[in-house]
Design a protein that fits this description.
The protein has helices at 3-32, 35-56, 62-81, 84-99, 116-124, 131-141, 147-154, 158-175, 187-206, 217-233, 238-251, 277-291, 299-312, 321-334, 338-352, 354-364, 373-384, 388-400, 405-419. By secondary structure, it is mainly α.
């Protein structure tokens, strides 16, 4: 075994964990009935892979390998606890289910979703947990985000995130929360948290919090899949359809968001001929389903309407910025936050000019310390006002803040271009 073998195996383990951790942990939680133990078993399998794969090679199906090791460890644990007889039937039942997967009966229950990851989301969003704890736990287990990434996504400190995840696991165990999708009567109480988690999951796929690449399409696709599974359970909830529309509109731009070097392109720079028109069509259809309700647009509906304005504009110059500004005004009234006001400032700059927008951004600085988009937006506004040296300084300041490496490089290049003028 060489150092190269070890490094190759470690990269493979990290990739498999990133792609498969949610399914592994959720399946183990269903089998064991113990959320915290399921994650421990998955982590133990990961450690075993790090030890075994450099010498034995990466298995043909790494995810199945990890699951097999974790199940063996679960069996050993049950034997030590003398609980094997209680859980063994679940393993047998799963094997039979796999054999019969292509023979779904005509009278299958439409109210039942056999999706372990969606079950995991509902469990992590249980009302016994505080809202921020639900988000932190789900982003850790479903998205596989690090505590540092979660802290940035939720604008919290790393120790706070760690504490909330640990306490959330203890609370779920102490309350004996079952690993299942709740019945119809209970679903509405968890819907807001579930939607928020799916949205944050998609956001991580759309613009990764850290790492070399800006986009993680696998995570974005999983978020869309979960959204469609959720709407199958609750087809009359307009906010689910709105979230699906938002994700479809945003994902339609994936192919055009990066240049040949993998660096991000702005909306103005993107080649709209590369936008996925089928995704835009699906987004439009989801918006129609959301509009069938008479409640008016909600939090996700307003964001989807903003994304739709971009999606249907033939060119950047033809974007209806006045409509986008009105939608942001409504969003700020419904769910006021510094991030919403920052995004509104961008729309304000396009509709009314950069000067009034710069005043808004400057006032937001104390509320968003260390938030990379703020100095990046400020740099854009300064550039449009002709203050190139100040703009370059802001681009460089934004690049130094925590975040994605590709985004940081693009910001540094923009600064360099201004300094060379």
């Amino acid at each position: 075994m060489t150092p190269d073998d070890d490094a190759h195996a470690r990269r493979a383990v990290e990739a498999v964990w990133r792609d498969e951790s949610a399914r592994i942990v959720s399946a183990l939680a269903r089998h064991t009935g113990d959320f915290a133990w399921a994650e421990d078993l998955a982590q133990e399998a990961l450690v075993e892979a790090l030890a075994a794969w450099p010498g034995s090679g990466i298995p043909h199906n790494p995810g199945a390998w990890l699951m097999s090791v974790a199940k063996r460890r679960a069996i050993d644990g049950w034997r030590r606890r003398e609980r094997m007889t209680q859980r063994e039937p679940l393993f047998v039942a799963e094997a039979l289910a796999i054999e019969a997967i292509d023979s779904v009966p005509d009278d299958a229950d439409p109210d039942r979703i056999d999706d372990d990851v969606l079950r995991l989301v509902f469990v992590a969003c249980h009302p016994v947990l505080a809202p921020q704890a639900r988000l932190a736990l789900t982003l850790r287990t479903v998205a596989g985000l690090t505590t540092e990434q979660i802290a940035r996504a939720l604008l919290m400190t790393v120790p706070t995130v760690q504490q909330r995840i640990v306490r959330a696991k203890r609370t779920l165990a102490a309350e004996g929360v079952p690993f299942e999708v709740p019945d119809r009567a209970e679903r509405p109480t968890r819907l807001a948290s579930v939607l928020q988690v799916i949205y944050l999951l998609f956001t991580e796929g759309y613009s990764a919090a850290e790492g070399e690449g800006l986009i993680r399409p696998d995570i974005a696709r999983e978020a869309v899949r979960l959204g469609r599974q959720l709407v199958a359970l609750m087809p009359r909830e307009p906010e689910i359809w709105s979230l699906i529309a938002l994700m479809e509109f945003q994902s339609s731009r994936f192919a055009a968001r990066l240049d040949a070097e993998g660096l991000p392109l702005t909306l103005e720079e993107q080649d709209r001929r590369r936008w996925d028109r089928s995704a835009i069509t699906r987004g439009n259809e989801a918006m129609k389903r959301a509009d069938t309700a008479t409640r008016g647009l909600g939090y996700y509906g307003l964001q989807a309407a903003i994304a739709q304005c971009h999606a249907v504009a033939p060119a950047f110059a033809e974007t209806d910025w006045e409509q986008i500004l009105r939608l942001y005004d409504a969003l700020e009234s419904l769910a006021p936050s510094a991030v919403v006001r920052l995004n509104r400032a961008v729309a304000l700059s396009m509709a009314r000019g950069p000067e009034p927008a710069l005043a808004v951004v400057d006032a937001l600085a104390p509320e968003l310390p260390g938030f990379r988009p703020l100095p990046a937006v400020r740099a854009e506004l300064l550039q449009r006002l002709g203050r190139t040296d100040a703009a370059a300084a802001e681009f460089l300041a934004a690049a130094e803040l925590p975040g994605n490496a590709a985004e940081a490089e693009a910001l540094r290049r923009r600064a360099g271009a201004l300094l060379s003028l």
